[in-house]
Amino acid sequence: MVYTLGQLLNRLTFRQLQVFQVVFQKLSYSKAAAELGLTQPAVSAQMKQLEAALGQPMFDYVGKQLYVTPAGAQLERVVREIFSDLETLQMDLYQLEGQLRGELRICVVSSAEIILPYLLKGFLQKYPQVDARLTVLNRTNATERLLQNQDDIAVTGIVPDTRLLNRQPFFDNLLVPVVKADHPLLTLKNITPQIFFDAGFLQRETGSGSRGAIENFCKDQRIKLKPVMELGSNESIKHGVLAGLGVSLLPLVNVITELRAGSLIMPTIKGFPLKRSWCAVYPSSKQPTPVMQAFLDHLREEGDRTLSAQFAYD
Question: In 145-182, which positions are buried (b, 16+ CB within 10 angstroms) versus exposed (e)?
Fold first, then answer.
């Protein structure tokens, strides 16, 4: 049976949509029940009512695994937009009262997780009623989450060349060469980029922004890049260099402590550091919420000063 819009509105509730969204995220009735503070039969009842109202199943069981149906995938996109609009409405109403309240969902590439706490500190001191949530991912996954409206802002060093995203640069991101303090390369008077990359280069995984920047540099300079090992984070690469596994190019902010202490050395090599910018990125189709706009303003006005004071290195 197909209902009119008025009949559908009479049969659907926000609670049903909320339960559906959590089941969609968890792909489990029991996990959704635990998150929502409900019993599993209560979650099942809400889902049955929702499916009866829409006339189609939202999920299928295959064995013991829950799978999303095409109807469920379409409903999730609509529900995500509805809840996002309601959240924006709530922020707008608070703003009419002279308050800035609401949630700020930020996803950051792994190399940026070091700088975000310093940026958030000043912002949250100014707006203590904002609830900030931070997710750390690689660049590819961060972009996907952003375009799916799972996050408000992504902080990354490389922004895909697409009109779907707006970008706001706020701080220089320098990829610098680093070697262990007793590395044999340091005895050479002239270290060329090729000599450096041939000294046992440690690289990030596919999808990493820094890996993409390094590969583009090598392609432009016709440098042969033959990494000896692939590691899944800047932190693991840094410790690989410290352990003597090889050399690497890492964001300055990730190695500033070791450079100051002298356990890592930044050799002088023509063409380095590679300079990029940290950017705040958000969908071009999305009107920034009051909380988003306040954070973007904070990055533009305070980002460079705050991070320069924390991560300066001569």
Answer: bbbebebbbbbbbbbeeeeebbebbbbbbbbbbbbbee
- At residue 65, does pLDDT exceed 90? no
Q: Indicate the burial class of 85 (C-beta count within 10 angstroms; 0-12, 13-18, 19 or more).
A: exposed
| Contact in structure between 139 and 156 (CB atoms under 8 Å) | yes
Select the CATH number that applies to the domain covering 5-78 from these four: 3.30.70.3400, 3.20.20.70, 1.10.10.10, 3.20.190.10: 1.10.10.10
Domain boundaries, the chain: 5-78, 100-171+277-311, 173-276
* DSSP annotation of 269: B
The sign of the CA dihedral 178, 239, 145, 67 is positive
C-alpha–C-alpha distance, residues 220 and 68, integer Å: 44
Q: Would you say domain 100-171+277-311 falls under CATH 3.30.450.20?
A: no
* DSSP assignment string, 201-215: BEEPPTT-HHHHHHH
- pLDDT, residue 122, reads 92
Locate the DSSP E strands across 218-261. 229-230, 248-251
Is the full-model pTM beyond 0.90? no
| 173-276 has the same fold as 100-171+277-311 | yes
Sign of the torsion formed by the C-alpha atoms of 179, 176, 250 and 306: positive
Q: Is 117 helix (H, G, I), strand (E, B) or coil?
A: helix
What are 191-229's pLDDT values in tens digits? 999 999 999 999 998 877 788 889 999 999 999 999 999
Helix axes 290-298, 70-96, angle to 10 degrees: 70
Class of domain 173-276: alpha beta
Mean pLDDT of 149-159: 86
